[in-house]
């Protein structure tokens, strides 16, 4: 028998088998065909089962068809430890420690999209390795009040910066076949009354300030999941909100992913059916600790929904739309046999955490070039402050982590300088001595018997003898100190830290203050302290990254993603008085009367108060000079866009990175507009003496404001100013042009 006959025979023999592979299992078929085929095979009960949780963090697949469960995991900075099936309590696994990456305020402070891609890819690899289909992050709610407990999880006050930085993170996560779940959609800008705040905001402000980061995550990042927020908008829960989910997310943005509720954010079956919710999680929990046990069949989208269908009260059209979205999520993740395998706690992930932290740390002040430290052999370095030793990868609420390791600032400083200098430590103050967060116990004993006065006296005594004093304090992600579920009650530092800092400044002129926080803090001692570093919550490699910067091994290049106000009274959300901070059991209307004037937009508008440190501020160990910006008039494009070029020179004696910012100002408009708005930035690395040219293309979108009446973006003809700046309060040049 000829070979050809054998092959033909084999082909015939297997033909029926090949024909038997159902479309939904055939990787060669388009995803939408596979979705429709799977949908057509599912029973009504199976369809209901996949649109709500079956456990604390998972929803059911379709076992009969071999479609796996969907496992979700917190959070934006690292992969949360396993909890029990139906409890918030730790499952006690021994293989679920992770790498804690820097908090997203630090990522935003890098102003470096490459760092965002590296971040998303790395955290996505950890999620993938832990077999999670959905990462419950990133968060991109706008920083509106410096008291908001969750600002550390978000990307600052400016919609353009947040919109630019969120996209690579989403792409990086999803390159692993893991869905990024962008949260909390929308208008979740403070934690007090987070479940019952009804936000009132005008459309222009909504579209110009609070939506752009979500829109970019969807349209440019291709996000596969969005999480509704707890609060209300137009008196409807954001987890089932016809305006945000049907009209905007689906209708205007063409979103094709799933909408997931926040844990406990679902409150009504009819609204959940008709207003765009696809997956209900965590009902009857406060999202942190409580929960009704095994209530899954009672979920709003479980039996109550099934009964409405069976009784004929509602059809199955909405159900099929939800199931299609869940199936599309499955085919993008757990049903994709070609997705990578991920990795956990790898050297690459630690290196990424350290690099991102080093690029996000912001040098706020450096008088007399006190930094980088020049440590002489036999000298003494005194480290003061609880945050030098306290674990920071725990706390903060749902983003709390169980890490494989965390290098504390004191450990990092000892490791870096300990072989030539004596590094001694004083507590300085007592902050949060708790040791358990979301079930993760730190094992640290931070108990202290000395009085506050004694602690200061002991620190001052040592400070008098030291060559350098490094105070490491700030906030600490304990309750009301940058934590989910509660806001801060003051702008100033807690635990009497100001007194410690002032006493140390008296005792030693070589004082460096390292502030660890996710929010701006008041600094009444700012004039007395020569060097101030904003070090964020930077995760497992904190100590290494801080030592890298203090020693000069890394030249700091971060810039603030939000304004540091001098006083709470300077913040529009507080001036207008509608941020009350007062807990209430009833629905609380909060009107965003500050409108579009958030952050530097407000600072620029009114001239009487100046911020402590401006949006976009950050120093370097070298210096940069900007040339005069020019517009290539002859290159003005048909659509009215122009290209602005500016040269930047490293005028110092060491390599450094500079973030060149480009803002646009409309000289005269038919509506009030901010003086200038960020519409571009470039981070460039320059050797000493090196000059590079940076160019920005300014298009009509950059020139536009949102006309709420016409419900569209409008660029009005007239004169526009293009500002090139090193910070919102440090304009280095301006050019103008006329939009015809
Ligand atoms: C929490 C948070 C949300 C988190 C979810 C699961 O309450 O609001 O960000 O992902 O519930 O823990």
From TrEMBL:
Residues 1-18 form the signal peptide. Residues 658-728 form the Fibronectin type III-like domain. InterPro entries: Cellulose_deg_GH3, Fn3-like, GH, Glyco_hydro_3_AS, Glyco_hydro_3_C, Glyco_hydro_3_C_sf, Glyco_hydro_3_N, Glyco_hydro_3_N_sf. The lineage of its organism: Bacteria, Pseudomonadati, Bacteroidota, Bacteroidia, Bacteroidales. It holds the Pfam family Glyco_hydro_3. GO terms for molecular function: beta-glucosidase activity. Keywords: Carbohydrate metabolism, Glycosidase, Hydrolase, Signal. Gene3D superfamilies: Glycoside hydrolase family 3 C-terminal domain (3.40.50.1700), Glycoside hydrolase, family 3, N-terminal domain (3.20.20.300), Immunoglobulins (2.60.40.10). The keyword Coiled coil does not apply. PANTHER family: BETA-GLUCOSIDASE. One of its GO terms (biological process) is carbohydrate metabolic process. It comes from the Bacteria. It comes from Candidatus Cryptobacteroides avistercoris. Belongs to the glycosyl hydrolase 3 family. This is Glycoside hydrolase family 3 C-terminal domain-containing protein.
């Amino acid at each position: 028998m000829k070979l050809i006959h054998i092959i033909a025979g084999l082909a015939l023999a297997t033909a029926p088998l090949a024909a038997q592979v159902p479309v939904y299992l055939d990787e060669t078929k388009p995803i939408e065909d596979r979705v429709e085929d799977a949908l057509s095979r599912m029973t009504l009960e199976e369809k209901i089962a996949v649109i709500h949780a079956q456990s604390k963090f998972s929803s059911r697949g379709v076992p009969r068809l071999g479609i796996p469960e969907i496992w979700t995991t917190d959070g934006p900075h690292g992969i949360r430890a396993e909890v029990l099936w139906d409890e918030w309590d730790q499952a006690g696994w021994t293989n679920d420690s992770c790498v804690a990456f820097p908090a997203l305020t630090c990522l935003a402070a890098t102003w470096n999209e490459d760092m965002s891609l590296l971040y998303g890819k790395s955290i996505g690899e950890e999620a993938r390795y832990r077999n999670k289909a959905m990462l419950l992050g990133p968060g991109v709610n706008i920083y509106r009040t410096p008291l908001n407990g969750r600002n550390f999880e978000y990307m600052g006050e400016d919609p353009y910066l947040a919109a630019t930085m969120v996209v690579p993170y989403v792409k990086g996560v999803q390159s692993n076949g893991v869905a990024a779940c962008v949260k909390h959609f929308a208008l979740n800008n403070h934690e007090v009354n987070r479940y019952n705040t009804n936000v009132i905001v005008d459309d222009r402000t909504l579209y110009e300030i609070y939506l752009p980061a979500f829109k970019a995550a969807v349209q440019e990042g291709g996000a596969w999941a969005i999480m509704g927020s707890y609060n209300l908008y137009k008196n409807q829960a954001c987890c089932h909100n016809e305006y945000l989910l049907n009209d905007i997310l689906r209708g205007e943005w063409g979103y094709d992913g799933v909408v997931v509720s926040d844990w406990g954010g679902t409150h009504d079956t009819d609204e959940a059916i008709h207003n765009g919710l696809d997956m209900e999680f965590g009902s009857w929990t406060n999202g942190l600790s409580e929960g009704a046990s095994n209530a899954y069949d009672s979920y709003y989208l479980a039996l109550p929904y099934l009964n409405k269908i069976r009784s004929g009260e509602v059809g199955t059209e909405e159900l099929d739309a939800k199931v299609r979205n869940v199936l599309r999520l499955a085919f993008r993740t757990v049903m994709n046999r070609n997705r990578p395998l991920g990795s956990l706690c790898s050297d690459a992930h630690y290196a990424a955490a350290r690099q991102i932290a080093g690029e996000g740390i912001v040098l706020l002040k450096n008088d007399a070039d006190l930094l980088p430290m020049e440590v002489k052999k036999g000298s003494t370095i005194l480290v003061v402050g609880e945050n030098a030793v306290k674990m920071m990868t725990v706390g903060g609420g749902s983003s709390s982590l169980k890490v494989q390791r965390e290098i504390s600032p004191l450990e990092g400083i000892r490791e870096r300088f300990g072989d030539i200098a004596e590094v001694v430590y004083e507590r300085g103050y007592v902050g949060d001595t708790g040791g358990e967060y979301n079930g993760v116990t730190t094992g640290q004993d931070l108990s202290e018997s000395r009085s506050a006065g004694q602690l200061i006296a002991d620190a001052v005594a040592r400070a008098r003898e030291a060559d350098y004093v490094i105070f490491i304090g700030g906030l600490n992600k304990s309750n009301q100190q940058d934590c989910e579920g509660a806001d801060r009650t003051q702008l100033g530092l807690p635990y009497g830290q100001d007194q410690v800092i002032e006493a140390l400044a008296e005792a030693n002129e070589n004082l460096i203050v390292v502030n660890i926080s996710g929010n701006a803090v008041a600094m009444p001692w700012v004039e007395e302290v020569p060097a101030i570093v904003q070090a964020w919550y930077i995760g497992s490699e904190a100590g290494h990254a801080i030592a890298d910067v203090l020693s000069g091994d890394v030249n700091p290049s971060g810039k603030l993603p939000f304004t540091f106000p001098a006083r709470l009274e300077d913040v529009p959300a507080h001036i207008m008085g509608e941020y009350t901070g007062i807990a209430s059991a009833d629905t609380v209307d909060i009107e965003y009367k500050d409108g579009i004037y958030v952050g530097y937009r407000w600072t620029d508008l009114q001239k009487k108060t100046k911020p402590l440190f401006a949006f976009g501020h950050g120093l370097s160990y070298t210096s940069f000079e900007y040339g005069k910006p020019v517009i290539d008039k002859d290159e003005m494009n048909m659509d009215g866009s122009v290209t602005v070029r500016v040269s930047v020179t490293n005028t110092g004696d060491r390599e450094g990175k500079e973030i060149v910012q480009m803002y646009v100002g409309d000289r005269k408009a038919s509506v009030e507009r901010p003086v200038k708005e960020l519409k571009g930035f470039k981070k460039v690395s320059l050797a000493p003496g090196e000059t590079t040219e940076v160019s920005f293309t300014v298009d009509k979108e950059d020139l536009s404001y949102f006309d709420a009446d016409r419900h569209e973006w409008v660029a009005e003809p007239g004169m526009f100013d293009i500002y090139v700046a090193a910070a919102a309060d440090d304009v280095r040049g301006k050019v103008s042009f006329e939009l015809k």
